[in-house]
Amino acid sequence: MTRIKDIQLDIDGDVAVVRLNRPAKRNALSDALVQAVRDTFQNLPAGVRAAVLHGEGDHFCAGLDLSELQERDAGAGLHHSRMWHACLEEVQYGPVPVVAALHGAVVGGGLELAASCHIRVADDTTFYALPEGSRGIFVGGGGAVRIPRLIGAARMTDMMLTGRVYQAAEGERAGFAQYLVPAGQALPKALELARRVAQNAPLTNYALMHALPRIAEQPADQGFFTEALMAAIAQSAPEAKERVRDFLEGRAAKVGKS
To answer: Is 112 tagged catalytic?
Structure first.
C-alpha cells in the first residue's frame, strides 16, 4: 500500500486500486488531490495492466472543494482549468485502462473525473449532478468535452440550466455508467472488470484508450486510415500472433464461453 496525501494506492496482482481518501469532505477535489491523482497515474508500478478508481466513505466524489474556490482574473482562471485538464488526461490517456467504481455523489468535478475513466460501474446509491450552473460558474475540468460524449450536449445543458439530478438507474440509461449494480457492489464489479481487462494484450488496450477516441473525432476517411495503421501495429505484436494461434488451434475460449 502506498499513500500520497488524500490518495491510497494498493496493488492487487496486475490491477492498481486507487482510492480517493477524503471521506470527511465527501472526497471533494482540492487542487492537491487532483495533482495527487495525476502523480499516481503517472507513476503506476511496472506490471500494472489495469486500474480501478473509487472513493472512500459514502461518496465517490462530491466535486470541487469550494473552500478552495478563489477569485481569479481571467488569465489565472484559464491556467487553473488547464492544470485540471493536464491532470485528468493522465487518467484518460495514461498507461492503463481505468474502471471507475461509483457510489453516492458523482457531482461536478467528481463527474468530470469519472468521465475521464474508460469504464464506469455505478451502484444503486449513485447520483449525478452539475451544480456549477446554479453557482454562477462553469465546468473547468474537461467536463464540457467529456460529458457530452457520454450523454449528449442537450442533457448536459439541461443539468446545468435547471440543476437536474440523475439517480442511478436513469443515469445508467442516459449513459453515465455502463454497468449498474446493487448498493455496495460497485467496487467488486469494477475489480472483476479490471482483472478481465488486464488479461488483454497491452497494445490492444492502448489502441482502445488512445486511438479509438481520436478515430471517433476524425472525418471518416482519416478515421479509416488511422484504424488501418492501428490494426496493423496491434496484430504485428508477438502476443497478438500467439493469441491468434491459440484460437486457431483450439486452445482459446470461444466467444460466449469462459
So the answer is: yes
How many structural domains is the chain composed of?
Answer: 2
Is residue 209 domain-shared with residue 193, that is, in the same domain? no
Catalytic residue among 56, 112, 172, 227: 112
Average pLDDT (189-196) is: 98
Same domain, 67 and 192: yes
pLDDT digits (tens, 9 = 90+) for 82-127: 999 999 999 999 999 999 999 999 999 999 999 999 999 999 999 9
- Annotation marks residue 172 as catalytic: no
- Residues 191, 209 share a domain: no
Active-site residue among 132, 170, 239, 242?
Answer: 132
Decide if 173 is inside a domain. yes
**Domain match, 182 and 218 both:** no
pTM of the complete model:
0.92
Q: Are 116 and 149 in contact (CB under 8 A)?
A: no
* Per-residue pLDDT, 201: 92
Domain boundaries, position 217: 202-248
Instruction: List alpha helices for the chain, DSSP H.
Output: 31-42, 74-92, 109-115, 143-151, 153-162, 168-174, 186-198, 202-206, 212-217, 220-235, 238-248
Q: What is the tally of helices (H) and strands (E) in the chain?
A: 11, 10
pLDDT digits (tens, 9 = 90+) for 14-38: 999 999 999 999 999 999 999 999 9
- For position 258, what pLDDT does the model report? 47
Are the C-beta atoms of residues 177 and 102 closer than 8 Å to each other? Answer: yes
